[in-house]
Input
Amino acid sequence: MTNDNNKKKRSLTSKIIFGMVAGIICGLLIQNFFSHNQFIDTYLVNGLFDVGGKIFIASLKMLVIPLVFVSLVCGTSSLKDISTLGRLGGKTLAFYITTTAIAITLALFMGIFLQPGAGADLTSAASFSAQSAPSLGEVIVGMFPSNPMAAMTQGNTLQVIVFAVLFGIAISLAGKPGERVANFFSDVNEVIMKLVTILMEVAPYGIFFLMAKLFTGLGLEAIANLAAYFLVLVAALLIHAFVTYSVLLKVLSGLNPIAFWKKMKDAIMFAFSTASSNATLPITMETATHRLGVSNKIASFTIPLGATINMDGTAIMQGVATAFIAQAFNVDLGIGDYMTVILTATLASVGTAGVPGVGLIMLAMVLNQVGLPLEGIALIMGVDRLLDMIRTAVNITGDSVVTCIVAKSENEMDVDAFNDPNAGEIELAMKKSA
Output
């Protein structure tokens, strides 16, 4: 029985990889051989691929708010000591800010050392205008919903998190009535996780549609024109993911990074294909609780918060982009300027949480702080879509690493499950057959 379940799990992973590769190949073939075919463009690219991909993304996003609210209520209501929540929140926020600061520092170091924009002498007639980011005070006030139902319908994750925490605390203090409500939410949480399982079964098809649509219009010539910037940024992202996170996980928790990476592959592929931390959140939650052995009371808090404010991948983009734009426009930045970039990007990762187009808003803020032209953003936007996919994969990996570290420090982690390569697979298969 165990072997059959393992085969099912491996089969799903293989199907996801196959769907991704097949979509990329299909998109490149259409771009190179059928780019002017009206029928294919209308009914295949902007028809089947576009509609299928959007339905898949919408289906994932459909679960985000219910999953965040219900799982966080379950986790918070199970806390017997409310002071634990303050310690948990402070610890989680500190880790997220620290990893973001490390990310931006690494990116600036590589950007300065490898000089991706040296000799480019670029100019651009294009312009870019980013919406202004809210002040820190506005962000804090905006975290508290005046209408919780409106916050849910609008997808305001920070407000949903705050309301869910307060609601969960009330349940834990309400005695017998609270126990009955907590049992109800526990059942609802199981139903939502079943929905996640169902979506994972159709994921290979959704990923195929997304990849095929993307690569029919992705200008690979833009990558050639910005090859140095592209390669330096990808290298920084991979170093942060595989080196920084692995070292932090091993040093701060004693957990095996290799076991971690093996269990994260499904979530990473989802993040890469959707380029959305929020859309991947249900898969990240399922991976953390069922595969990595993290208690739901920890994962339900750290992962939604990380999907909202933890942007290591975006911070790396800002560091490399700042160095590239400064070099391309022949602007010399001093040590003080680079320190300003580190501080601004780290604080902005929290201050712009939940704002659409957050990556470009944060970059615009950083460039303004050191006097670089915003037109530089227009230069790199041609390759930003593909890089955004890699950044998202790094972001959700960082969320999961911090979740494991915090869970281990709080003794809310099943280490045996983490080390068991089959953990979660049997449970997942049982849920499918139930």
